[in-house]
Design a protein that fits this description.
Number of domains: 1
Shape: globular
Helix content: 40-55%
Radius of gyration: 21 Å
Number of strands: 13
Distance between the termini: 22 Å
Largest sheet: 8 strands, mixed
Oligomer: single chain
Length: 323
């Protein structure tokens, strides 16, 4: 039996716009939450910076970091990935006599205090997965990839690649401050004083899920990569208190990390180890696609719908036709 899916270009356009709006909605909620946390932990005014990390297109590894101050209006009007790509479009690198564009490895938004806060918090950052990773994540969820990986002895080692889409990082001066800030996060009240705060009133509205929790954040789980035993510590030396928390009707990954480790992570994101990590992750998904052809079909279908050109494609038992 051959499955044939026929899609109109008008339908694809509507799907892509709906996908874009969903990303914007998730990012808006993430940045509203980050603003609330920054107003509490940074104890005053703060600046917003869009930061991009990449490697210059040369034979050797030459990482770069570009940071640009942005306004709150700009932050809430475009996607994070658009912020990063727009910045890179302003730069070219000369290679072999030609001016070539820069490539994006990672991008994030920083919340930087104008004065040193007494909380010991150095900054906050927020990030969201790129569009391709979002497509992969959706496919992973359709096929319950985390359960598949946990059951398969050969694939179990790759279970760490399943990540949350939206993340907020709180960078502290030292490890002891990380512990104190993490405990404080669990105690922040969601009372009227915060709900009616000046910071929240200046932000785009976010619907309430109607919950009756008195806490701002509902912590679902926390993994301790800060004070755990050496055997449990990440081999890369990465340290943080890594949690999944619910705010309103969304889940967010919230990390509390020491400043020294934050800079090590910046080096990692722009270095060969980050690219090696991505290659291993992509290799896992390619392996699954070979073992489960329907997984490959769904992944290719979602990428075509959400981000790629309108091109028909065909598999042995299924095809997609663009009209």
């Amino acid at each position: 039996m051959h499955l044939k899916i026929e899609l109109s270009r008008e339908l694809i356009a509507r799907v892509r716009e709906a996908f874009r709006q969903n990303i914007l909605d998730g990012e808006r909620r993430m940045h509203v939450l980050a603003h609330l946390l920054a107003s509490i932990l940074l104890e005053g005014e703060f600046e917003l910076h869009s930061s991009v990390i990449g490697v210059l297109p040369s034979d050797d590894d030459h990482p770069f970091l570009i940071r640009e101050r942005i306004t709150r209006d700009k932050l809430f009007s475009v996607t994070d990935i658009d912020l990063g790509n727009t910045m890179l479009d302003n730069f070219r690198y000369q290679k072999d006599g030609l001016w070539v564009p820069l490539e994006l490895s990672a991008n994030f938004v920083e919340y930087l205090p104008l004065a040193r806060p007494g909380t010991g918090v150095n900054r906050l950052t927020s990030r969201v997965k790129a569009e391709e990773e979002l497509c992969n994540k959706i496919t992973d969820e359709i096929f319950s990839l985390d359960q598949l990986v946990s059951r398969d002895k050969h694939l179990r080692q790759y279970s760490k690649f399943i990540k949350d889409i939206f993340g907020i990082k709180i960078v502290c001066e030292d490890e002891n401050t990380c512990i104190e800030v993490h405990e404080r996060l669990q105690q922040i009240s969601a009372g009227p004083a915060l709900t009616n705060s000046e910071t929240l009133q200046q932000l785009p509205p976010v619907e309430d899920d109607g919950g009756d929790s008195h806490q701002l954040l509902e912590f679902i789980e926390t993994k301790d990569y800060l004070t755990c035993s050496p055997a449990q510590m990440k081999k890369t030396g990465w340290k943080a208190l890594k949690s999944v928390a619910r705010w309103r009707d969304r889940l967010f990954e919230i990390q509390v990390q020491p400043l020294s480790n934050y800079y090590l992570e910046l080096d990692h994101m722009s270095g060969p180890s980050h690219r090696s990590f991505k290659l291993r992750r992509d290799s896992l998904r390619d392996e699954l696609a070979e073992r489960i052809p329907l997984y490959r079909f769904y992944r290719d279908l979602l990428k075509m719908l959400f981000m790629e050109s309108n091109v028909s494609f065909e598999y042995e038992n299924a095809s997609v036709v663009i009209e």
